[in-house]
Amino acid sequence: MGLLLLGGSLLLCGSAVSLSQGGGVNDRPIIGVLAQETHFGHLYHYGKSYIAASYIKTLETAGARVVPIRINLTEAEYGRIFNSINGILFPGGGVDLKTSGYAKAAHLFYKLALQANDRGDYFPIWGTCLGFEQLTYITSGENILTLTSTEDVALPLNFSTAPDKSKIFRDVPKDLVKALATKPLTANFHNWSLSLKNYTGNEKLRKFYKVVTTNTDAQLEFVSTMEAYKYPIYGVQWHPEKNPFEWKLPSSTSHSLQAIKVSFYMASFFVSEARKNYHHFVEKAEEMKALIQNYNPVYTASISVFDQIYFFD
């Protein structure tokens, strides 16, 4: 059993690393999804933090189980969770990239993931929308996002990297890649974007991430899909989970068969990445207690932008 020094605290790194050396595939992947502060005032009475259910459902359709990661836990608690899950998703939302509990937890898991991967313990991260923005902030150390007119806009993707040269898209069928490049299949719900100019001008981002796709709001070209060169870290500014599981009207979100397929290919890709990791809970009872099935989502379609939400605290 190894040891990890983080922030002055000594954390146990369980037998997961040694298990990962044995080869094979983990057919029981568990992915953590990070919660964030409830920033919708009229929903606060349901819980102080939340996760939209669409993220959970999308991962489950690809064969993963999900553990909600609550905010404002101790470093030791986050360390134990890290050594028990096989990957983590930073979902979209609307909290501060620097001061929120979401941001602080994301920063910690990011550091743990880099340390793990550097020692041969494969651990993937996926960031969607706010999660994408959070990754850019953590990696660069500064907020270089720019306001764009991209709230509730469906867009095709502009591939700046050939799809077969991208880890994310290389196994997506060619006809679906063509649809992604020519049809408005990707749902955008963000006010802030990483402009291609700011990405190019930031050495830390430029050296860490490959730009896979871009988009434009007619005035500014921004990064919409990126993947790390060295690490299994991925970010999309768009929302794959909304196509199959969010039905709010009016909305530009596509529910076409092709859009649904894109969602499942993205989920399958990330879950496949998590299958390469062998972290596990020490006790079966601890695992069962941690799973999202211990919580009940609230049907919120008439009072929020999400059909269902899990609330915590």
Helix/strand order: EEHEEEHEHEHEHEEHEHHEEEHHHEE
Using the alpha-carbon principal axes, give the shape: globular
The parts where pLDDT drops under 50 for at least 5 residues are 1-22
Strands ordered across the widest β-sheet: 6-3-7-8-14-13-12-10
Give the averaged pLDDT, no decimals: 93
| Number of helical segments with 4 or more residues | 11
Residue share in β-strands: 25-35%
Task: Classify the helix fraction into a percent range.
Answer: 25-40%
Instruction: Tell me the distance between the termini.
Output: 32 Å
Overall structural class, as computed from helix and strand content, comes to alpha/beta
The count of DSSP E runs of length 2 or more, i.e. the number of strands, is 16
Largest sheet: 8 strands, mixed
Radius of gyration: 18 Å
GO cellular component, one term: vacuole
Family: Belongs to the peptidase C26 family.
EC number: 3.4.19.9
Protein name: folate gamma-glutamyl hydrolase
Molecular structure report:
The chain is α/β, with parallel strands linked by helices and 313 residues long. The chain is built from eleven helices and 16 strands. It has helices at residues 16-20, 53-61, 75-82, 101-118, 130-140, 174-182, 196-201, 203-208, 242-245, 257-274, 284-290, and strands at 2-6, 9-13, 30-34, 36-37, 49-52, 65-69, 88-90, 125-128, 146-155, 158-159, 186-193, 209-216, 221-228, 233-236, 298-299, 308-312. A hairpin with a 4-residue loop joins strand 12 and strand 13 (221-228). Helix 3 (75-82) crosses helix 4 (101-118). It starts with a strand and ends with a strand. It is found in: Secreted, Extracellular space. Keywords: Hydrolase, Secreted, Signal.
